[in-house]
């Protein structure tokens, strides 16, 4: 992926270079990634390419992957383990209720940092040492990628953390599928369907209600359910606040606009507070990563 393009260009398949594919019946292990990484580094790192009159220089600057792949690449313990967040050192296991609130600029006079910010407490050398010693969330096999990229210098996987994480949990509760974690998202299903039918979106989004994949689930949540939460009074106010805050965070990441950091922080805090008031179980590792403002 070419990381210096605008984000909507970066994700287009014509701008993604395929280096190789690995076929496997199980999730790849850290050892497998350690074997492959030197080959990728040799091909990509510090390479100069010439295409027509253009010269390109390539370098590995970050890593994007879904959660299981990212964990094995970096040699992290399972996501529910203590200190297994890529961005902070929250000691919570399954429900990570603590952790840092934001990345800080230490030159600002009013900065604050909770002691669990991984990039502050375990800056580069500390993180390499943690990886070698298998402590602070790292597993037994040291990962080679840690010599090159810090785990906290990687983007958050919104598709899995929101689309196939927290948003999916909320969608299931709204539609009465499975046991709810609380009564927060209880709604009369007929009224919900009526409200959804009132929402008109551009035709490219006409199929999203089927929620066939993570992209659909995220779009259904951040567009349709956001509109329902704003327009109709059929949901509990806590649920409306949480849906609006999560959707606005997700929408911001799908757009190119830049707003003040304080706004993101308050959206994260609002969503987290309303969810946590109803049940700590909403704060799974996926929800924690997205709502602790690890951006
Ligand atoms: Zn964290």
Description:
The chain is mainly alpha-helical. The protein folds into two domains: 147 residues, no CATH class; 134 residues, no CATH class. Helix content is 43%, strand content 3%. The protein has eleven helices and two strands, in the order ααββααααααααα. A two-stranded antiparallel ribbon has the order 1-2. Strand 1 and strand 2 form a beta hairpin. Helix 6 crosses helix 8 and helix 6 runs antiparallel to helix 9. It is globular, with a radius of gyration of 21 Å. The mean pLDDT is 88. Bound molecules: zinc ion (ZN). Zinc ion binds next to helix 11.
Task: Please tell me the total number of domains.
Answer: 2
Q: Mean pLDDT, nearest integer?
A: 88
Q: Please estimate the helix content.
A: 40-55%
Overall geometric form = globular
Strand residues, percent: under 5%
Q: Looking across the biggest beta sheet, what order are the strands in?
A: 1-2
Gyration radius (Cα, Å) is: 21 Å
Ends: how far apart? 19 Å
Can you summarize this structure?
The chain has eleven helices and two strands, in the order ααββααααααααα. It has about 300 residues and is mainly alpha-helical.
List keywords for this structure.
mainly alpha; two-stranded antiparallel sheet; binds zinc ion
List the helices and strands and how they pair.
Layout: H1 7-10, H2 30-44, E1 47-51, E2 54-58, H3 67-74, H4 118-121, H5 124-133, H6 158-174, H7 189-198, H8 214-231, H9 237-253, H10 261-278, H11 285-291
Helix pairs in contact: 2-3, 6-8, 6-9, 6-11, 8-9, 9-10
């Amino acid at each position: 992926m070419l990381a210096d393009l605008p984000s909507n260009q970066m994700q287009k398949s014509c701008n993604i270079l395929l280096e190789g594919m690995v076929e496997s019946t199980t999730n790849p292990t850290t050892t497998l990634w350690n074997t492959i990484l030197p080959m990728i580094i040799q091909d990509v790192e510090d390479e100069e390419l010439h295409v027509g009159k253009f010269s390109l220089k390539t370098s590995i600057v970050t890593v994007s992957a879904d959660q299981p792949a990212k964990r094995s690449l970096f040699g992290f313990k399972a996501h529910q383990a203590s200190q297994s967040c890529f961005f902070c050192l929250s000691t919570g296991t399954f429900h990570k209720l603590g952790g840092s609130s934001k990345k800080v600029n230490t030159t600002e006079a009013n900065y604050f940092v909770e002691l669990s910010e991984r990039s502050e407490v375990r800056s580069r050398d500390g993180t390499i040492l943690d990886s070698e010693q298998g402590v602070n969330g790292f597993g037994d096999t040291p990962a080679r990628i840690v010599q090159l990229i810090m785990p906290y210098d990687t983007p958050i996987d919104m598709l899995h953390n929101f689309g196939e994480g927290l948003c999916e949990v909320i969608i299931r509760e709204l539609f009465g599928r499975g046991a709810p974690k609380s009564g927060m998202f209880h709604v009369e299903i007929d009224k919900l369907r009526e409200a959804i039918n009132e929402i008109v979106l551009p035709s490219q989004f006409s199929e999203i209600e089927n929620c066939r994949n993570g992209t659909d689930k995220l779009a259904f949540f951040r567009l349709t359910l956001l509109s329902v939460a704003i327009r109709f009074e059929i949901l509990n106010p806590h649920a409306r606040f949480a849906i609006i805050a999560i959707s606005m965070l997700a929408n911001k990441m799908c757009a190119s606009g830049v707003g003040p950091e304080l706004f993101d922080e308050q959206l994260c805090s609002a969503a987290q507070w309303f969810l946590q008031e109803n049940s700590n179980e909403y704060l799974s590792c996926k929800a924690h990563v997205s709502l602790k403002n690890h951006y």
